[in-house]
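hey so u asked for the seq, here:
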Amino acid sequence: MAAGFYLISVDYEIFGRVQGVFFRKYTQAEGKKLGLVGWVQNTPAGTVQGQLQGPRKKVKEMQEWLRSTGSPKSHITKAEFKNEKEVDSLEHSSFNVVK
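ran it, structure tokens below
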């Protein structure tokens, strides 16, 4: 595949005011809009974490959205991305909010 079109997977954790502000719902909607699969959930530490999978270019767009946009009432102080790797196929069938 051409650069930007091969599939990647990346884990993320978002810090700041990201719980109780519909962050997971907006993250799910943005991920679906970009054609990504994965999941998002709140953590006991007050952060939001999850995994993104899809074409590299779209995952990078989603990373920027998580880093700088989020939900309208959120306030993102830090976004961490780790375990980025190429994948042969998607491991999820949709983008889910995990309770």
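The chain has one domain: 7-97. Residues 56-68 form the longest helix (13 residues).
lmk if thats what u needed
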